[in-house]
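DM between two lab members

TW: hey, do you still have the 33 kDa chaperonin entry open?
JB: yeah, one sec
JB: this one, 301 aa:
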Amino acid sequence: MADQLIRATAADGGIRAVGVITTRLTEEARVRHKLSYVATAALGRTMTAGLLMASNMKRTGSRVNVRIKGDGPLGGILVDAGLDGTVRGYVGNPSIELPPNAKGKLDVGGAVGKGYLYVVRDIGYGYPYSSTVELVSGEIGDDVAHYLVSSEQTPSALVLGVFVGAQGVTAAGGILVQVLPKAARDEALVAKLESRVSALSGFTPLLQAGKNLIEILTDLLGDMELNIFPETHMLRFHCGCSFDRVLGALKMLGEAELQDMIVKDDGAEATCDFCGQVYQASSDHLAQLIVDLQAESSASG
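TW: and the structure you got?
JB:
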């Protein structure tokens, strides 16, 4: 199945649900960054969570930055996800590998460790909104759900999953279910929803069993006035880096540093942290940047 997102409501609009499949984009991230098994799971879950959070934003161009800074050997995670369905991200130590945890699963919590979750929401105008919460488990899903409850006062259940084997990522995605204020006072409804979500054995087993997002949401909320929106939004790994942006960053180093690069290295090499793309700037490129800087200096003087 293609990477995609669908939205739904239930309980007469009192429940909001979003489901995503992120298998291909997680596999692309694994290949681009040469990720280990546990690093793949950690980054895949965080990218999935970022897309789920961004899906509830309204203004075109809105984006969410999710940064997880723990004291574990993974060295942190940074993800940038947009309402437009694009996402990118990286981890601090992509090659780290750990033994399975007590449940026999990839030890994402051990790789992340203790620390903090930072979320920045850029709604397309004004100052971005930022918030920080302490990590609950390092397993990503629990931590993001805790953020949504504590920082946005929205009772939320989040189920994330990444299955990665010898052939790469074969299943990834997640579900976000939120109880809106109009239904939050209905304790029976909230208890019923919590029971349904906690009974799920995970998300990737559902994909591996051949279920699509509509079937998964129907199983979860089908008897609760489920209304699945007809639009399906496609998702993809995408980074906006470019050679021109690299040259712009190099130009900020100044004439002396650029000249030093020409003499010592006969050029410069830059790698994008988000996507792993490597850019090569020749000595001619750097020389042109020096000419541009000198021209700008003369014009301002």
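TW: got it. The CA atoms of residues 272 and 278 lie 7 Å apart. The longest strand covers residues 168-179.
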